[in-house]
Amino acid sequence: MSDMNKEAVLKAVKDLNVKFIRLWFTDILGVLKSFAISPAELELAMDEGMGFDGSSIQGFARIDESDMVAMPDPKTFTLLPWRPQEGGVARMFADVLNPDLTPYVGDPRYVLKRQLEKAAKLGYKMYVGPELEYFYFKDSCGTETLDSGGYFDLTPLDVASDLRRDTILALEKMGIAVEYSHHEVAPSQHEIDLRYTDALTMADNAMTYRLTVKEIAMKHGVYASFMPKPIFGQNGSGMHTHQSLFKGSKNAFFDGSDEYNLSSEGKAYIAGLLKHAPEMCSILAQWVNSYKRLVPGYEAPVYVAWARRNRSALVRVPMYKPGKEKATRCELRCPDPACNPYLSFAVMLASGLKGIQEGYELPDPVEEDIFEMNAAELADHGITALPATLGEAIEVTAGSELIRETLGDHVFEKFIENKHKEWDAFRLAVTDFELNRYLPIL
Fold first, then answer.
1. Which one is catalytic: 107, 166, 184, 336?
2. Which stretches of 101-185 are assigned E, i.e. beta strand?
3. Which of 311, 381, 404, 410 is catalytic?
4. Does 184 qualify as catalytic in the annotation?
5. Cα 1 from chain centroid (whole Å)
6. For residue 198, how many C-alpha atoms fall within 13 Å in the half-sphere facing its CB?
7. Does 43 participate in catalysis according to the annotation?
8. Of residues 53, 144, 367, 417, which has the active-site annotation?
9. Which of 87, 75, 2 is nearest to 36 (CA)?
């Protein structure tokens, strides 16, 4: 419903007998927040915004400066298909503003908007297509799976088949285009890929997708999880993010005369992703558990290199097909689906633009299996690794001027503070691993 404006929203609410309108926004960790208003308040809300207390929202204001305003974006209006259709519920994403209606610097949506404006001044528009993987479990108390299928398996009809179908139908009812879906590598692991679109729309769509997957699972009496690595010994869930820049209708990454069909801008953008990957790693993989996924041996990229066919590299450039110039793109493979998509897309774009603006040189692709290389071979290729833990990642991020500039001082400092606390809590915890390993022998 990207063509919706204030008048169209008011008419739709009346014609469809909508009784509640939920305003959605996101905290700095990517957790969806919401409150509902009645149709009687809607016109005023779209003119002046709706006030709320931001002091309890992660990364928002202190209690002495907690007044916030949620300004609904009419272009994001849609009905929620899992709610009753008679006297239904609609939603709009909201931009978080200060009481004087200026943008609030702690709003992740504003962080992305600010970076997209920077790209626009350079003539670019960012398009992204994330692949969000997730698991279905019997409930939220454990990891009992629903099937034993593998990659692209066509499993016998079971609850997971209906879950994926119903989820896709719900997404399409909300105007979110789905490209395809399939069973993933691990038991009960699935993937639904959203069709490539502009970065802001996709960040909104990713937030909607995660909630929709969970809501439909709940209706079927099961639990859906975007935890990056819930099952030991199995592949974790990633959010491989395909991305490109356009100048008008032209893909700025494509150059048919280049051996890789990449323009100088495309190469510099990828070089920017590679150079700044360690700095943005804590944004793209922001949880302690994220680094249980980012280990060699489970198809998750941990080595900073790029390739075309090689899926062990951090960045992959899918092979060019004649006549498909607009599909030229790169795929960053380290993000996981529990990240904040607004902040993640913002730091990806910032890194790529930095590469373009400063003319970063792209090294040669590495088509050998990097996971099979020893330390000497990695050094010969100039391949380094991403941070191995959240603790390492957050220290690299804390020293990054690029990430600070991209997120803004407020979000940057709140994010670093939150992640230091999470890492300290993990370090102090006594785990089952330690008890099982050490208690019987020490």
1. 184
2. 125-137, 178-183
3. 311
4. yes
5. 22
6. 16
7. no
8. 53
9. 87
331 catalytic per annotation: yes
Q: How many domains does the chain have?
A: 2
249: three-class secondary structure by DSSP: coil
98 and 158 share a domain?
no
116-144: average pLDDT: 94
Higher pLDDT, 7 or 162: 7
Choosing from 91, 164, 240, 293, which is the catalytic residue? 240
Q: Could you tell me if residue 78 is inside a domain? A: yes
Question: Could you tell me the two tokens for 67?
Answer: 């007044």
**Each residue of 279-302: pLDDT tens digit?**
999 999 999 999 999 987 766 788
| 311 is known as an active-site residue | yes
Catalytic residue flag (residue 333): yes
AA identity, residue 90: A
pLDDT in tens, 152-211: 555 554 557 788 889 999 999 999 999 877 776 688 888 888 999 999 999 999 999 999
Shared-domain flag, residues 133 and 89: no
Out of 95, 133, 147, 255, the active site residue is: 133
DSSP state of 278: H
In degrees, to the nearest 5, what angle opens at C-alpha 374 toward C-alphas 370 and 377?
Answer: 75
Residue 302 belongs to some domain of the structure: yes
Q: Which DSSP category does 248 fall into?
A: T
Indicate if the alpha-carbon torsion angle 384, 191, 146, 290 is positive or negative: positive
Q: How confident is the model at residue 235 (pLDDT cuts 50, 70, 90)?
A: confident
Which of 166, 161, 189 minimizes the C-alpha distance to 178? Answer: 166
Range of the domain at 136: 113-433
Catalytic one of 27, 73, 166, 191: 191
Distances in Å between the alpha carbon of 215 and those of 58, 131, 224, 269, 287?
Answer: 23, 19, 9, 37, 23
- Taking each helix axis from N to C end, the angle separating 199-219 and 159-173, rounded to the nearest 10 degrees, works out to 140
